[in-house]
């Protein structure tokens, strides 16, 4: 078991952590300790926890609100107001919310396509039924023509031979 004291533990920034995975480095237990503890490095990630009104936010700051992570997109510092929560206006952007909207749109499109496909399938089945009826009528007409030709042939053979 690895034990480290809080005083001796220093947080590694993302660049230092990325360097651990270069050149086929064999990771040691200490490397994993750095990795695990550095995941909590909120300063570098600009993560501020749950969004709060009356708090100042800088461009690039990340907050948690309404079940998603939101990034502040303004070019200047803002003081959050109660009526300007993430999702209202264009100050904040959430990739998760955008994906949810895209998924909703795709589901609507899929439902529309499913209905159109069903309608098309029913029309196709009706066309097949009509085609089969026409083929049956055509075959009946050909059969009648062959019977008539055969009967005419027999008649001419009998009347010509007599």
UniProtKB/TrEMBL annotation:
Any single biological process term in GO: carbohydrate metabolic process
SUPFAM superfamilies (UniProt xref):
Carbohydrate binding domain
User: What residue ranges carry the coiled-coil annotation?
Assistant: 89-123
Q: Which Gene3D superfamilies does this entry report, sorted A to Z?
A: Carbohydrate-binding module superfamily 5/12
Keyword tags: Coiled coil, Membrane, Transmembrane, Transmembrane helix
Q: Is Membrane among the key words of this record?
A: yes
The cellular component terms of Gene Ontology attached to this UniProt record, alphabetical and capped at eight, are:
extracellular region
User: One MF term from GO for this chain?
Assistant: hydrolase activity, hydrolyzing O-glycosyl compounds
Task: Tell me where the transmembrane regions lie.
Answer: 131-158
Per its record, how is this protein called by name? Carbohydrate-binding protein
Q: Which organism is it from?
A: Aetokthonos hydrillicola Thurmond2011
């Amino acid at each position: 078991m690895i034990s480290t004291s809080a005083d001796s533990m220093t947080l590694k920034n993302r660049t230092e952590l990325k360097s651990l995975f270069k050149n086929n480095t064999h990771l040691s237990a200490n490397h994993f300790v750095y990795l695990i503890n550095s995941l909590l490095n909120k300063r570098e990630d600009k993560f501020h926890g749950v969004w709060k009104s009356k708090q100042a936010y800088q461009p690039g700051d990340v907050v948690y609100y309404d079940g998603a992570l939101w990034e502040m997109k303004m070019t200047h510092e803002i003081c959050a107001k109660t009526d300007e929560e993430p999702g209202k206006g264009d100050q904040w952007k959430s990739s998760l919310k955008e994906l949810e909207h895209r998924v909703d749109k795709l589901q609507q499109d899929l439902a529309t396509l499913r209905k159109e496909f069903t309608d098309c399938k029913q029309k196709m089945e009706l066309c097949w039924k009509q085609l089969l009826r026409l083929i049956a009528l055509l075959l009946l007409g050909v059969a009648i023509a062959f019977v008539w030709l055969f009967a005419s042939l027999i008649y001419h053979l009998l009347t010509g031979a007599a």
